[in-house]
Design a protein that fits this description.
With about 120 residues, the protein is of the alpha+beta class. It is about 35% helix and about 30% strand. The protein contains five helices and five strands. Strand 4 and strand 5 form a beta hairpin. Helix 1 packs across helix 3. The longest helix has 14 residues. It is elongated. The termini are far apart.
Length: about 120
């Protein structure tokens, strides 16, 4: 089973000296990666920061960059962040479960995502 995947960023991470870094590797996420990310104080203060912390845990290499941290991920161009989020979902098979439904009026079959989280 493959657990590490290579990628090339569409724009590239620009370091402090202006050098672009585009090639890297991402590993499959573990339950521990996700649990640790949800406990991170930055995520507790701002839940939208979860993506940044998780990506900093699963990106294992970025050519020419010694350490990948949340600060590194924060400095990515938005196109690169979107690319990495999509890659994370694809390699970890993070697809929401769906239920096949049939319209009682027209008989057309369609899929509806199932949300297991109760709000309120």
């Amino acid at each position: 089973m493959e657990t590490t995947y290579e990628f090339t960023l569409p724009k590239g991470y620009m370091d402090a000296s202006g050098e672009l870094h585009r090639r890297g590797k991402m590993k499959l996420a573990t339950a521990g990666d996700e649990i640790a990310a949800t406990r991170d104080p930055r995520v507790l203060a701002n839940p939208s920061y979860l993506t940044i912390v998780i990506l900093s845990k699963v990106i294992t290499e970025l050519e020419g960059v010694d350490t990948i941290s949340a600060t590194t991920i924060e400095k990515l161009f938005t196109a690169d962040l979107a690319f990495l989020q999509d890659m994370y979902q694809r390699i970890n098979d993070v697809e929401p479960p769906v239920m096949r439904c049939v319209c009682p009026d027209c008989g057309k079959t369609f899929e509806v995502p199932i949300n297991f989280i109760q709000e309120g």
